[in-house]
Each structure stands twice: as C-alpha cells, then as structure tokens.
Amino acid sequence: MSIEIRNITKSFGSFQALKGIDLTISSGELVALLGPSGCGKTTLLRIIAGLEAADSGQILFHGEDTTHRHVRERQVGFVFQHYALFRHMTVFENIAFGLRVRPRAQRPPETEIRRRVHELLELVQLDWLADRYPGQLSGGQRQRIALARALAVEPKVLLLDEPFGALDAKVRKDLRRWLRRLHDELHITSVFVTHDQEEALEVADRVVVLNSGQIEQVGSADEVYDHPATPFVCQFIGDVNLFHGRVSDGRAHIGDTVLALPGTAESDAEQALFFARPHEIEIGGNGEGIGAIVRDIRRRGNAVRVELERKDGQGAVEAELSREAFGRYAIKHGDEVVIQPSRIRVFQH
Amino acid sequence: MRLYRQHSVLPGFPLALGFTLLYLSLIVLVPLSATFLKSATLGWDGFFEAVTTPRVLASYKLTFGAALAAAAINAIMGLLVAWVLVRYEFPGRKLADAFVDLPFALPTAVAGIALATLYSSKGWVGQFAAQVGFKIAFTSLGVTIALTFIGLPFVVRTVQPILEDLEKELEEAAASLGATRWQTFLKVILPTLSPALMTGFALAFARGVGEYGSVIFIAGNIPLVSEITPLLIITKLEQYDYAGATALAVSMLLVSFTLLLAINLLQWWTQNRRGSRI
Amino acid sequence: MSAQTLTFASHVHHVHHAARSETPWVRRSLTAAALVFLALFLLMPLALVFVQAFAKGWETYVSALMDPMALAAVKLTLLVTLIAVPLNTVFGVAAAWAIAKFEFPGKNLLTTLIDLPFSVSPVVSGLIYVLLFGMQGWLGPWLAEHDIKLIFAVPGIVLATIFVTVPFVARELIPLMQAQGNDEEEAALVLGASGWQTFRHITLPNIRWGLLYGVILCNARAMGEFGAVSVVSGHIRGATNTIPLHVEILYNEYNSAAAFAVASLLAMLALVTLALKSALEWRLARQIDADKDEE
User: Fold this and answer.
1) DSSP character for A288?
2) So where are chain C's domains?
3) Single pTM value for the model
4) Nearest alpha-carbon partner for B110 in C225, A112, C15
5) Which of A103, A284, C36, C87 is deepest in the core (most CB within 10 A)?
6) Which fold has domain B44-277?
7) B84 and C35 in contact by Cβ < 8 A?
8) What is the CATH code of the structural domain delimited by C56-294?
9) ipTM
10) Mean pLDDT of successive 10-residue segments in chain C (295 residues)?
C-alpha cells in the first residue's frame, strides 16, 4: 500500500514541528526518516499512524484519504521506541492482543489465533519465549516481540519509531540486517525513524532527510551520500570538511587558494560553501592547494586519519588516507603540507 | 499556549475531565464557596469581632501553639525515626516501619480516648507524671501530645524517601575531606534533607491546627485553658451561633489555604532539588 | 615527620570504616531512642485500646458489641462507606485519567484542588454542609419546604465522609499513571482495541495495585471519620450514629469498657489497613522496579 503525505504541518504551542511535508512512499518500500532529534521525524511518523493529528494537510493510504480516520481503523503496525509491550501479559498474549480485541464477528477462532501467534513467533525466531513476561526479556528480544505483535494484525503499513535506538551496538547491527531480510520477505510498506545515518543508509531503500520540520532531501543511500542536496544533508550524512569562499570564473576561491571545479558549471557567487569528505582530501607537496600543518595522525584499521590545521587560521581539516597513500606521502606530525580536494561540492548562499 | 488540550488519540478526556470538575464542584467547591459567602453576610466588623473574642484568641493561642510545638517535636523525632529506619538494620525494622502509619490508619476518636486514658492522672503514663507533679490531661501539654501522635507520619514519610536516595558518595566525600561524622551530618546531610524536613513540619503543623478527634478527649475542653479552635466551632454551632461558627471556620480555612500554598511551594522546592541533583 | 605520617595513615584507616556509619554505641542509642519513642507514642495507645476493651472480661466486651445501638452504628458506618468509597474510586480513576494522560491548562490547579480536603479541618468539612443544607443554610429553607432532610441525617453523613476522602484514590493513581506514560494505551489502540478495551485490558491491570492501595486508605478514613461526621450527624442514637460517634457517646457516659470494646473494632480495622498497606507497598515497589527495568 502506498502512502501519500500532502503538505502536513504541525505545531506544539509556538514550536513548529512540521512545516509542510510532502512525500510519497510507494507500495512495498522501506523508507527511513532521518534527522537530528527535534527535527520532527517522530511527529511525522505518529501523524502517519494517526497517533497525532496534523494541523493541516492530508495523509492518503493507497490514494484514499485517511486523515480523519482513527488510528484503530488505519490498519497500521506501529513499533514503539520503548516497545510498549503490555507488561502484565505474556509474550503470547501480547502478540494475540490485536486479534482478541476484534469485534466478535471478525475475531478469528482460538485455534487460529494460536496458529498465527506461533507462526509470528517463529518468524521472529522466539517461539520458545511464548510464556515469558516482557520484563524477563532482553532488549533485542522485546524489540522482535514488539514487531511480531505489530505484524499480527496484518497491517498494510509498518511504522517503526527508532526501532534500534535502545539497543547496544552489536544487537543493533544484527537486528538491522534481520529487519532488512524480513522486509524483503514480507514486502510491507515500511517507514522507520532514526537519527543514525549509518542505520538509515544500510537498511532503507530510500532515505528522507529531515531538518527543523522540513524535508531536506529524499533519495537512495548513494544519492544522499554522494549528491547531497543541501549543506545540511552534506554535514549530517558522513564526515565532511567545510570551506568558506567564493566562486568566480567557474573556480573556487578559498582564502588565497584558487581551485578548479571539475565537472561543475558554477556561476559566480560572492559567498559559497565548499564541502569535501575526508577521503576526498589529497595531501600533496607541490604548490597548488591550501596550506596546512599536520597536527595529529591516527591509524584506524586500514585507513589513516590525518588532522590538519589550516595555515590561514580558518580551522581544521580532516583527511582520510589509505595506508598505501599515507606511506607514499611520508608525512609526520608538524609537517607543512598543501591539501587539495579531489572532489568538491559547492553550495551558494 | 493553546487554550484546549493537545490532541491525543486516547479516548475519554471530555468525559473524565467533565466528571472530575462536576464532582469536585459539587462536593468541594460549592460548599466551600457557600461558607465564604455566608461569612460575607456578617460584614467586616461582625466578622472581625467574632474571630477576636478573648475565648477565640485563647483557642488560637492553644491550637497554633500546640500544633507548632508538636510539629517541632515531630521534626526532631521524625527525623530520628526515619534515620534509624533507613540506615540501621535491627530485628523488627519492617514492623516498626509499617507502624509509623498507625496515626493515619487509626480513627481519631479511638486515638483520642486511648490518649486521654493513657495520660489521665490514673493512666499508665499519667500516674507517673502526676507523681512528679505534672498534669498532662486537660492541659495544653495533653493537646501537644495528641498532636504529636497525629503528626509523626507526616515528617517520617516525607524525609524517608529523600534519605533513601541520598548519594552515599556525598558522605564519603565529606569523610575523605576529613569531616567528622557529626560535621558531615550537620553540613552535608541536614542541608540536603532540610526542604523535606520543612515540608514534613508544615504538613504536621497543618494537620495539627485542624485536628479534632484525637485532641478533644485529652484536652478536656476548658474554656480559655484547653479549648481548641475546631471545638469552639462546634460549641458555637451547638449554641446556634451560626454566624460565629462561620466566621471561625473561614478564619481557619484561610489559615489552611495559606499553609497549603506554603506546602506546595516547599514540595516544589524539594522536587526541584531532587531533580537538579541528577 | 614520621609520626605525623603514621597518624595520618591510621586516620585514613579509620575514615575508611566510618565513612558512612556511626560507631556501634551511637547506632544502638539512636535505634533505642527511636524505638522507645515509637513504643511510647504509637504502640502504647494501641495496646491500651485492647487492654481496656477486655478490662471487664469477655462478656462485657461481647455485650458492648452486640448492643443494638452498637450494631446500628456498625450498619450505618458500612452503609456510608459503601456509598462514599465507590464514588470516590470512580472519581479518582476519572481524575487520574484526565490529569495523567492528557495535557491541558490548569492541570496543576486541579491537582491542588483535589488535595484541598486534606488541608481543611474535619470540623470545617462538616460545617460547610451545615451552612449549605442546614436550617440556617442557603438551601435549608427550600429543603425543609420539600421535606428533604440532609443535615442531621444519613445523606449529610455520606456527603461529609465523601468530602474528607475525596483525594485518596486520585492522589495514589496520578503519579503512578504519569510514570507509566501513554505508550501501552497507544499500542493497544494501534492494534485495534476500542477505548473501553484499552482501559479494561491495559490501563486497569497496570494500575490495579495502586488503585487498591488508594481504596484501602480511603476505606479506613471513611469508616473512621469523626470530626466532620460529628458536625452533621446530630448524634441520634440508632439512627445517625456511626461507630466513632458511638465510641464518643459511650466514653462520655463513663462507660469506658464498652467504649474501648467498640473502639477495638476500629483499631482492628487500622491494623488490617496497615498490613494490607505494607503488602501493597511491597508489590508497588516491585512493579516500579519492573517498570524501570523495561525502560
């Protein structure tokens, strides 16, 4: 089922949480809402679910307006950040809840409920926990039970609020892959909220980057990483170095240095922002480039991170080199070098 | 800020709030307002006269004096009891802990006749006091004892949780800096406890000022000597002096509301302190 | 120099032991002082009730309880409690639902208003109803015209009892429900549960111990209320006397054994209340720990 979000706005008191969101999610897609805390991503998710009402705008499920439909009738599965498992019910009863509360006419018979619950428990690979209480489970187990409970009502849309937020790093990685596999199996239209860019890039088909209530960019993992649409996206996703300067004659002027801008046709601008990722910074000995001093060298696995300080006092630059390249440059602490971005993104004010 | 509730999908807000407001209005607000309105019919002079007769003034002196003394005793003894219950292990600790709430659970009339019998000149305790020339029942001392009984749990139960949450590192730090145990108590523990202790004191005082059942039996109710203000209200009522009773009730309500405000401020302060510690 | 180092070392050793505890002697004295105080001020009055109740033997005790006036008082107390406690329970749940689960302006004021009856003297609590419904009160003449008697009658006793016990259930439930948040209720609604199903299957089981706790305290106060009831009752034996009022009458008639015999019923109620309260506190503490664990 596709989801269409049309011009959604929402304020809490004087705080504008969402400032006109438009987004279409196609059927069977797995989409991540990514952004820093307070950007409105959870609010948007709750509005899609019907847990929160928008001040204006529409939500359409499969072309049908559901804006005023109660959460109960939207047929969404929602996985809460802290799971919200019913603490006084066993795992089995938690998963069966959605089926048991149906009106008598639509309620499946008890044998069918049992079968379905066990099927779901097998799906999340926790069949052996049916009789436990939520308090007796680990974080990762609770997460999977919460997912099974949400799936029990056969939702048309699955919504997950920071699904891995409360888990430790190792469990988080496992669950991420597992969720991706599960989605490939079930093909339910899914939206999840995260503040972790790595998580969004790894799991989602498409990433929606949000910032202070607005969509900054929508695209695949590669698109938002390689072709960020705004300075915010550039800085939020992946490490990046920022240079202030101007553009003239299709070339970048950063401090006293003039750099070519290959592959772009930038018009002149008095003020421009230039971004380059650490692995796109090249350190060379010869004249062309920005003068800098090596301040720190740290080895990280197969890569070497070099921290440099610009000689013109405009701050620090971080470069990431392969061991091989590092060996070739033969730089050490305190060296005066020249840096050149091999690739640069330009944003004009 | 909006003037209506934030949207929530949870149902039942209009019903729950509507019922709450209706119930509170009928049971609490309307009768209280009626009392204030009634006292207004007295006029300012009538009101002032009614609440300042010598008998009334004597009852104020006794009520507030005894409540203050009892609250002070409770602040000290309540802190001691809370300290012992939280810090020390001893047989029967749980039982003693549960027992602290007895004054909450025991109907005041029962407490009243028990205390009156206990401290009468022939009672278990009263006879020893009588031997050394102390009269407890039918004096302000008796009133103070009854109010101490009734107020103890307020202090213990407000101090106890704060004492339980007290970071042990604070005391260890003080000790490591060379403070003696007594210095640590006075300069580290007591200041941390003081908002809670003051709240407990205020609660015990507020309860003591209005207390009736546990006091009247031991007090003996001798006008100008051992007559508390709440009893004076009943006396006036029995003499069909509705105006006088109303005026006294209003003066007591004003005191109650002031104390309630003070207690709320104290509790807010306590919570702020607790919150900001983290 | 070396001597100084030595004393310093021994001082450190001493500190290590005494960092958070007093010397055994101080500890024992403080414990003893606290226990003597509790025994003198709490235990002795309670013990005295039972000793005095049986001072003139079993027969006097039983006959005091079997006295028709005593039985009538018991019956009235039960009746009043059976009306006041359920009403205040429903009120408490409704108030806690509105206050803990929703945001609205004036919430703090409402919470304070709910606690208001606790800070009003019991005598004044009774008086306000006399001033409203009594012969001299606002509605008195109208009520008399229509032959409705509220004051010096059972309805007045019920009203006064409700007034003094209004806060009990609400003040237990509000912090509990606030701590539990709305997540589970929202989860139930997303899964298709109706409002009533959500309350019945999710909220109610989660608050049951706190609810019971509030009800027990409310019950103890309703059965034992003296001051407020005394003002509105009119003390008509066999008709408007509750147990505490009956105790007062017997005591004032110098019928001490009978007074304490009837009082012992209330003392037992207090003991049962304390026992249930402790048991529930233990359960609530466990639940709160479990809740914390789930965060």
Assistant:
1) S
2) 17-53, 56-294
3) 0.84
4) C225
5) C87
6) MetI-like fold (1.10.3720)
7) yes
8) 1.10.3720.10
9) 0.88
10) 38 46 84 92 92 88 89 93 96 94 89 89 92 83 84 91 94 90 91 91 91 93 93 80 92 90 93 91 76 56
